[in-house]
Amino acid sequence: MRELINKDECWCGSGKKYKECHFTIDEKLSKMEGEGLIAPPREIIKTSEQIEGIRKSSQVTKKVLDMVAERIRAGITTDEINTLVHEYTLELGGIPATLNYRGYPKSVCVSINEVVCHGIPDERVLKEGDIVNVDVTTIYKGYYGDSSRMFIIGKASEKAIRLVETAKECLYAGINVVKPFATFGDIGHAIQTHAEEKGYSVVREYGGHGIGIQFHEEPFVDHCAEPHTGMIMIPGMTFTIEPMINEGTYRCKVLRDGWTAVTADGKLTAQWEHTVLVTEEGVEILTA
Ligand code: MF3
Ligand code: CO
Ligand code: CO
């Protein structure tokens, strides 16, 4: 029976024989499932054609953020950032993914100071000392790319700068553990360890996510977790890592607009995000 199965085409869409493709990976996954870990569902493993599409989309996202980096300054409104992102995305042949996503009304999220995520652009003016997250998600030829960066407006306080830098280190601490047969728990553990070492807390209510064919796919990527737990990584998985790091409590609340998440204590928060791909060698940062 096994022989028959092994002559079949692999389930992954490579066109190769199963035995010469995912057979060894599946065997290792079964063994790890025996240790209580979770094998990734086959639907979220991307084909090389899909990966190329997600890579291109992620590069559009990167270009849009590069443009924002050049234009953001004290005196600009968040609505003006929204217009810049909207128009440049269209110019590059993409569609802003957040616009009308589950009723979200704008083409970008702009989250200032105590805003954890999903800040809605409006007539608010950025001022010297603000720390601002700009989160861009693009649909390009049907594929999704998602990334966010922090921007420091003019001269900010030492503690704000330190928070922004630590949040970036947390993102890379997470990215650095990505490789075949590592677990999503390893990502959360690396991030949490680094954040707590520096005296910060990690938001739990929001996390990273599978991405590519849809905006939010499986799995939920916890930024707070135990090592060697949860879902197992294998090549062809695409997901975001996007830790939100807080000065005070990790707790958040959502404003009456139904979107804007703020820290429960009003203290500062910072976030950086990349879309990544698990490769045979380790990781490729698609939005870099
Ligand atoms: N870009 C955000 C993320 O990283 C999601 C924004 S959804 C929106 O997952 F509707 F708020 F725009
Ligand atoms: Co995002
Ligand atoms: Co995301």
From TrEMBL:
Binding site for substrate: H118, H216
Cofactor note: Binds 2 divalent metal cations per subunit. Has a high-affinity and a low affinity metal-binding site. The true nature of the physiological cofactor is under debate. The enzyme is active with cobalt, zinc, manganese or divalent iron ions. Most likely, methionine aminopeptidases function as mononuclear Fe(2+)-metalloproteases under physiological conditions, and the catalytically relevant metal-binding site has been assigned to the histidine-containing high-affinity site.
Binding site for a divalent metal cation 1: D135, D146, E273
UniProt similarity note: Belongs to the peptidase M24A family. Methionine aminopeptidase type 1 subfamily.
EC number: 3.4.11.18
Top-level EC class: hydrolase
Biological role stated in the UniProt entry: Removes the N-terminal methionine from nascent proteins. The N-terminal methionine is often cleaved when the second residue in the primary sequence is small and uncharged (Met-Ala-, Cys, Gly, Pro, Ser, Thr, or Val). Requires deformylation of the N(alpha)-formylated initiator methionine before it can be hydrolyzed.
Recorded name of the encoding gene: map_1
Domain Peptidase M24: from-to ranges: 52-280
Record-given protein name: Methionine aminopeptidase
Provenance organism: Clostridium homopropionicum DSM 5847
